[in-house]
Amino acid sequence: MQKILRELDDGAKESCWAWYIFPTEKAGMCDFDETRITAENAKDLCDPEINASAGHWQQCLQEICRLLEERNAIPPDSHVLPRIDHGRVHWFIKFWQSYEHSPRWMQEAPDA
């Protein structure tokens, strides 16, 4: 996740990592780990006591929101995230908006 944060320091996503930051119920086509979110694993993903990367994941999401806000952009915005990732972001947001255990910090993120 530190590599992703360093990439975002340049203001935009350039490499392939959307499925790690925006997991949906469908694994990414190029993701050999077949990363996906489910109602069963979502709570663990957000829990720093269970998932050592939870804090870094939150930082990445908040940095993307900051970059969008800095540009005064509302997703989808192709300057921060490439168009190919927009559908994944849409479904990610839909999942977390409807998930009853969504963390407070995520509920404070801008709507799409």
Question: Would you spell out the secondary-structure blueprint of this structure?
Answer:
Elements: H1 2-8, H2 18-21, H3 42-46, H4 54-70, H5 86-98, H6 104-107
Question: Any key phrases for this structure?
Answer:
single chain; 112 residues; mainly alpha; 6 helices; 0% strand
Range of helix content: 40-55%
Measured distance between first and last alpha carbons: 23 Å
What ranges have pLDDT less than 50 throughout 5 or more consecutive residues?
none
What's the alpha carbon Rg, rounded to whole Å?
13 Å
Strand content: under 5%
Order of helices and strands: HHHHHH
The total domain count is 1
Largest beta-sheet details: none
Report the structural category: mainly alpha
The shape, in one word, is globular
Number of strands: 0
Mean pLDDT: 86
Number of helical stretches of at least 4 residues: 6
